[in-house]
Amino acid sequence: MSAQRGLVLLARGGYAARGVVYLIIGLFAVLAAQGSSQPTDSHSSLEALLSQPFGNVLVGLVVVGLLAFAAWRVLQATRDVDHHGREFKGLVIRGGLLVGGFTYGALALFALGLLV
């Protein structure tokens, strides 16, 4: 597999996992708006997902995807794959991508901690 193909798969898997996490949070937010006491943030949403049938498998998949997304964000920031450049604006954007990568990495580690 070429490096380019690997990066594409990494990015796609990461974006898919991020989308799943946001869908879960959104679902629980809708339930909370209807009067149910469901979680409305990412940490409590992952904890609630863990209690579902096959929750360990689902959270495990989310962990893998979030780690992939975190790695992709770090690569975007450090390798400038989106060609933001080295001017001030580009460095600010790349800094934001790096912070995002660390944030998603932390969320993945939190989810991994739920499994252990």
TrEMBL record:
This is DUF1206 domain-containing protein. The keyword Cell membrane does not apply. Residues 14-79 form the DUF1206 domain. The chain crosses the membrane at residues 15-34, 54-75, 96-115. Keywords: Membrane, Transmembrane, Transmembrane helix. InterPro entries: DUF1206. It holds the Pfam family DUF1206.
